[in-house]
Amino acid sequence: MLVEDVQPYGMWCAVWDFEVSSELSIGESVLTELQARAVTDGVALRVGLVLEQNGAILLLQRDEYPSTRSPLNLPGTIVRPGERLSTAVARALYEETALTVVDIQRHLGSFDYLDNAGKPVRREHFAVGVAATGPIRLSNYFSYRWVPLDGELPVTPSIRAILSGYRS
Q1: CA within 20 to 30 Å of 5's CA: 43, 87, 88, 90, which one?
Q2: Which residue, among 92, 106, 82, has the nearest Cα to 31 in the 3D structure?
Q3: In the structure, what pLDDT confidence band is assigned to residue 148 with cuts at 50, 70 and 90?
Q4: DSSP character at residue 139
Q5: What is the reported pLDDT for 69?
Q6: DSSP string across 78-122
């Protein structure tokens, strides 16, 4: 079912709301529990997404001319107040890449940090399946790369730990 997700300032983004398959995904109850735990812990919630294709994962590059130390990013977003976690996952990938999530396959873990204003944030990570891996149309990033999982991953240590768990 297609759901129109109303954005501030009158903009909207169409995202797919989907039934999660109990055979292939983690299920809505896991997502609901993760979201409730964030509320109980008093942390803002963000999502990070791992999309794999032929042994490589999709990573996004923010700047046109990054320094050699500039890490790449997983697709992700802030979970809006009152938004279901499954909707935030689908919205994140669609808004950043124009790819459509068809399944949230598994929870990969999380880490907590303080945002630039010093407020606590929890970033939950999920492996997702998509309808197709292209074409990719970026909105908030300059470029993207499919980076092999068996090589050196140009990401932050926190993301590297999530991806290490994903590999095993």
Answers
A1: 43
A2: 106
A3: very high
A4: S
A5: 66
A6: EPPTT--HHHHHHHHHHHHH---EEEEEEEEEEEEEE-TTS-EEE
